[in-house]
Amino acid sequence: MHGRLACGRPLVVRLASEKLLEEDSSHDRSKRLLPEAAKRTRFVSGSSSGQMSRGDKVAAIKNKLKALEEDEKLDPKKQKR
Question: Where is the composition biased (Basic and acidic residues) (predicted)?
Fold first, then answer.
C-alpha cells in the first residue's frame, strides 16, 4: 500500500510505534515553544473541551439554549440560521 495513489495523493504506511515516536517528539517541541505564562493559563481557562467534565459541557449547552430562546423572545422577527 505504501506509495499507492489515493485521491491523487501517495499513501504513506508506517508502523504504529513510529507514529507514537513522532507525536511524542512534536509534543515536546510544542511545549518548549510555549511561553511560561501561556503554559500556566492554557489549562486553567477551561476553554479546551478536553478539560471540561461531561456535566460542565451539558450545563454550557443548556445555558446557550436558554440564551438563544431569550433572544428569540426579545426579537421574534430575527431569522433563524
Answer: 20-39
- In which element (H, E) is residue 10 found? strand 9-10
Q: How many residues does the chain have?
A: 81
Domain regions of the chain by residue span: 52-76
**Cα angle 29-26-2, degrees, rounded to a multiple of 5:** 150
Which contacts of 24-32 are long-range, i.e. CB under 8 A and separated by 24 or more positions?
none
Looking at residue 41, its pLDDT comes to: 47
Give me the percent of the chain exceeding a pLDDT of 90. 14
Say if residues 41 and 51 touch (Cβ distance below 8 Å).
Answer: no
